[in-house]
Every structure is written in C-alpha cells, then in structure tokens.
Amino acid sequence: xxxxxxxxxxxxxxYPRAYRQYRADEMLxxxxxxxxxxxxxxxxxxxxxxxxxLRARTGVDRLGSRSALGHSALRxxxxxxxxxxxxxxxxxxxxxxxxxxxxxPYNPGGWWFIVIPALLxxxxxxxxxxxYRLAFAAAILTVAAQHFSAxxxxxxxxxxxVYDLQxxxxxxxxxALLASLALLRLLRAxxxxxxxxxxxxxxxxxxxxxxxxSPINGWLDAPLMSLCAFAxxxxxxxxxxxxxxxxxxxxxxxxxxxxxxYLLGSKQxxxxxxxxxxxxxxxxxxxxxxxxAGTIAGRRQARM
Length: 304
Prior knowledge:
Elements: H1 3-11, H2 17-34, H3 43-58, H4 66-89, H5 91-103, H6 112-128, H7 132-151, H8 163-166, H9 174-187, H10 199-211, H11 223-236, H12 243-269, H13 277-302
Helix pairs in contact: 1-2, 4-6, 4-9, 4-10, 4-12, 6-7, 7-9, 11-12, 11-13, 12-13
C-alpha cells in the first residue's frame, strides 16, 4: 500500500462504515487515478472528503431535493424547540428533587412544574419517532398549561392587557408555542420512516443544553454571548449540514420574541424597561444572518 493510498483510506473513514463497504474501493480507485500529488492529497481534496463523509453521516446527502431538506429542517426545528423548552423548565423539578433529598418531604405548592416538563417530554419523543399528531397535542397542552400556571383558572385575567402578556414575557413560554406551529406544518406532510429516532433526543439535547441559555447551564447571565456562540457554530457547520443554521435561527426566535414581548408589556404597564431595543435588533440580525447561511448552503446541497 502506497503512502497516498493509506492517506486516502484514512480520509475515507469520515464516511459511515456501510457506505465505505459499498463504495470505498470505487472512490479510492478514482482518487488514485486523478491525484495530482503522488505522496499526499491536496488540502482541498482532503476537506471535500471529510465534508462529504460528515454529510453522509448526517443523512443530508440522502434528502435529494429542496423540499425534502426543508421538511427535515422543520422537523429538527420542532425537536430543537422542544428540547430548548425542556431546558428552560428543568430547573423546577431538579430544584424540588434536590430539596427533597437534602431536607426531606417538601410541598412545592403546585404541580405545574412537573406537568409542563412531562408534556414537553411526551411531545419530544413523539416527534422524534414521527408521531406528529401526539407531539402536536402534547405541545398545545403545554402551551395551555403554561398559561394556567401563570394566570390561574380565572379566565378574566387571561384577556387583560398586562396579564395577557405576562407569560409571553418569559423565554420558557415560546419554545412550546413555536414547536406547535412547526408540528402543525408537519401534520400535513406525508409520513416518512424516521432513521435512528433516539439520536436527536440524545445528541440534540446535549447540544442545546450546553449552548442555549437555561437555568441548568449558567448561560442566563450572558444569554446574548451564548446565542451568538450557538449561531456561530451553526454557521460553521452549514457546509456540512444546511439544516443546522436554519434550526439555530428558529431557536433564536424564542428569546427574541420574549425580549420583544417584555418590551411591549413594560411599556403598557409603565414599568421600568430593562430590555434595550439594541439587544433585540442584535438578535434579529443574528437570526437573519444565520438563516441566510442555511438557505444558501441548502440550495447548494439540494443540487448535489
């Protein structure tokens, strides 16, 4: 085995094993026949092989059309929003559990802190397995439960000018509502088999928990920095998978809407405004740039 062949075989490891078993020899033969340097692949060639392998692993190369890519991005957006909603609501159950373990029996004064995460969990796993009707129902129930937990059972409070915006001012309100809208669109799409349905609840949860501002990762003190890092990572991965910037832009919509609603509600109630319009505009600009990166990359990948 020559040095060039050994290097090519090492680069081809970026592709899934099943893919290599089927096409590795053919690809290797073509690469060796067209190589310019008899000792090592060029940097551009190596990058193309690695990116192609990662695309094969994410499955984006099998989507085949722009509509299929859009459908997949919508599904991943719904899943990401549900995971994000769970991270926003995880503080309640975790805090109660820690208190019970350290201090004994504890009365939390209500059960919404368990009901809402439970509904989000049902919606997440139902969507991951392709049961969009169940996921949509659970997401809608989550929105209703959030409203009840914030405003109580007295419906007269629901329609007053300030109380109508009270829960919408909180960032944890929006993920379930936005996920419901995404799932509503998925209900009309033809159902397709879902490969590795467990992967997104696990890997997606790790990514969102690590980067999206929530009570369990400490990013709440610097949410804008966290969201910028999240968007930057998504843009960097756009050449590999165009769905990631689209998902990131949808996730950024939740805190942006919360900030805008807080600004509106504060003006209505005459409160001292703690949110600047500049921060909202920065979030909006990041969203637009991230979405543009995903759209451009999606057009290129749909033609491949």
